[in-house]
Amino acid sequence: MRKSNIIDSSKIDKLLNKELDHLTNPTILEFGVQLGSSTKFLLDICEKKNGRLYSVDIDDYSNLFKENKKWKFIQSRDDDFKKIYQLIPHEIDLIYLDTIHTSQHVEKIIYNYFDILKKEGLFIVDDISWIPYLENNNFNNFFCEINNKETFDTILEIYNGNVENIEINFSFYGSGSTIIRKKSLKKLNNKKKITSRENSLKNLIRKIFKKYKLKQNV
Fold it and tell me: pTM score, two decimals?
């Protein structure tokens, strides 16, 4: 499972610290083990709040926190649904996704695990900002730029089809993250394409008129 190119231990702290204040005895499901970053932070939360962390990764990290009774490691792909569902509770407070950063994979994981989130539960998707990876920016990377932008657009389309079922917030700190809050116990609807009038004739006329007005004011 590919990890983020921008690993910052303060990123998840900034993202989740206040969001998790109300939780007691949280059950957390993490896809993609992050050494010294998300896994440690989430496990610390479980220790403070008497919770339980289930971490899934295709690589073997079973020795990482093997002495900690709040932690269970599952060596598996995150899309081996049959295996994972046999090893986790079916009510989860928080799901944290940081594995394969393509829009198709993120969409598949959201739709296959969203049902087990409790109402008001959170689904966190890492790496949704393409800005650090633009050609002239510090982490110039074509694939990360395109994948993250496509993931961002896909999450917006999921929201567009589920306005009454979920809330979303975006953070562009580091490589970016999305917080999806479950507002209803209904199943997620299919994503809905966002049709913009940006390229419409009406908007073209608006732009021409705007340029004309600017010239008049010079």
Answer: 0.89
